[in-house]
Design goal:
Elements (H helix, E strand, L loop, with lengths): L3 E10 L2 E6 L2 E6 L2 H5 L7 E10 L4 E6 L2 H11 L6 H10 L2 H9 L14 H13 L10 E2 L2 E2 L3 E2 L3 H11 L4 H9 L7 H13 L4
Antiparallel strand pairs: 1-2, 1-4, 2-3, 4-5, 6-7, 7-8
Helix pairs in contact: 2-3, 4-5, 4-6, 6-7, 6-8
């Protein structure tokens, strides 16, 4: 229903921010990651939004980036992960960290978030990994090289797999990461690739 809100940032408390759009103030539930990058009160801000409809409430969630919104949607699609838990995860981990933890099969990173125990963390990792296509089975890796010149091992390969976890096609991810410095840490490669995708390449 709402794609985004652009207006004047007027107020914030732990867990939410208020954006005034043409005289109507919208309360947007937010992760700490989004709240940390909000501008000064009174300044213009854009939040990418998701409306969660319940029997007794309409909850509007706001995110500083489309990547965080997409990650929120991926998380809430997992059995046992509601919006509150997804926000808790995104308050502890960036979308890049979520993708890397899932791609690496590391459930412990998710247990940092409030409401995420070992069993749920394991389920999150398993279900997110299921969303990642087998790169070697898809024909993207030939003689140790992935499409776009990405090494089949190391930081670049981790970044490609993590981007696939976030919903990008492995071929597009490999092409973008292949144009970056493979010596960079995986999280930096992911962040730079997301900037490229966000600039128009989908």
């Amino acid at each position: 229903m709402f794609y985004s809100l652009t207006g004047r940032y007027v107020h914030a408390e732990p867990g939410f921010a208020v954006v005034d759009v043409g005289g109507v103030a919208f309360k947007c539930l937010c992760s700490m990651g989004t709240l940390r990058v909000m501008p000064m009160p009174g300044e213009k801000v854009t939040l990418y939004t998701h409306l969660n409809v319940r029997e007794d409430a309409l909850d509007l969630y706001g995110f500083a980036t489309q990547e965080e919104l997409n990650c929120f949607k991926l998380l809430t699609a997992i059995s046992g992960v509601g919006p509150k838990v997804a926000l808790a995860i995104l308050s502890e981990l960036t979308p890049e960290s979520v993708a890397l933890a899932a791609a690496a099969g590391d459930p412990k990173r998710f247990t940092r978030a409030s409401g995420v125990g070992p069993k749920l963390a394991q389920r999150i990792v398993l279900e997110l990994k299921d969303k990642v296509k087998d790169l070697s089975g898809s024909g993207l890796i030939v003689d140790g090289q992935a499409a776009g010149g990405v090494s089949a091992s190391g930081n670049a390969a981790q970044a490609v797999e993590a981007l696939a976890t976030l919903g990008y096609s492995p071929s597009d991810a490999a092409a973008v990461v292949g144009g970056l410095d493979s010596a960079l840490p995986p999280e930096v490669l992911i962040r730079e690739a997301l900037k490229i995708f966000g600039s128009g390449m989908k």
